[in-house]
Design brief:
2 domains, nine-stranded mixed β-sheet, 18% helix, 12 strands, Glutaconate Coenzyme A-transferase, globular
Length: 252
């Protein structure tokens, strides 16, 4: 045992306020897409810490009574940096009422901002969102796309250029991620669609807690099959999976 495994999700977060890792006004990343691959038990434990005024970086905000919707119910989230939030009426009401700040991102841009933060890249340029509301107040440049950069027209050096908008990398105080399997060192393997924002977020925070469905002895995982190395993970906790369906659709 290497000291990363916790008995419960609440134990995994219990001392983080006292250690200054989370605090009122902190930034927290939460993995998942819809209700797939979310660290559901860690979200409940985070709610129970009482930390508030959170800036939350997550693809979406769960549903009204599960996932990040629980933190919206208690009004612990001050700002959401997200891509898609269409399944949460609580989110909608708080935003319309002016109680919740929202920073929308194209989904690929959000993923790349998180990846950049984990890689130590402060900013990058993307064509996505150029010329739209997304670009307002941001630096833009006219450049050739990389695949056209070698095709320089001596008579018209600007030929092939298009507008790019600068986006900043994202980094958090805490990341809560969900994986299928971990070893005692914290090496992680994700399963199918749950391998969404989780791997990137696991590299882009000062402290990372992983919720997993199975913990095996160190050395049990095939090295080439590991998605997130354990040196990015500070704590792991095994929980029972509680899979809820975001929208149930059946044929007539």
């Amino acid at each position: 045992m290497l000291g990363k495994e916790c008995t419960t999700a609440h134990e995994a977060l219990a001392d983080l306020r006292a250690r200054g890792i989370i605090y009122n006004g902190c930034t927290i990343m939460v993995g998942g897409f819809g209700l797939c691959g979310i660290p559901e038990h860690l979200i409940v434990a985070l709610r129970d810490t009482g930390v508030c005024e959170i800036t939350c970086i997550s693809n979406n905000a769960g549903v009204d009574d599960w996932g990040l919707g629980l933190l919206l119910q208690t009004r612990q989230i001050k700002k959401m940096i997200s891509s898609y939030v269409g399944e949460n009426a609580t989110f909608e009401k708080q935003y319309i009422d002016g109680d919740l700040e929202v920073e929308f991102n194209p989904q690929g841009t959000l993923a790349e901002r998180i990846r950049a933060g984990g890689a130590g890249i402060p900013a990058f340029f993307t064509a996505t969102g150029a010329g739209t509301l997304i670009a307002e107040g941001k630096e833009t440049r006219a450049m050739r796309p990389p695949r056209h950069a070698a095709r320089i027209n001596a008579d018209d050096p600007s030929a092939g250029e298009r507008e790019f908008v600068m986006e900043t990398g994202l980094y958090a105080d805490l990341a809560l991620v969900k994986a299928h399997k971990a070893d005692e060192f914290g090496n992680l393997i994700y399963r199918k669609t749950a391998r969404n924002f989780n791997p990137m977020m696991a590299t882009a925070a000062a402290f990372v807690v992983a919720e997993v469905e199975e913990i095996v002895p160190t050395g049990s995982l095939e090295p080439d099959g590991i998605h997130t190395p354990g040196n990015s993970i500070d704590r792991i906790v095994r929980t029972e999976r509680e899979k809820r369906i975001e929208q149930r659709t059946i044929r007539q």
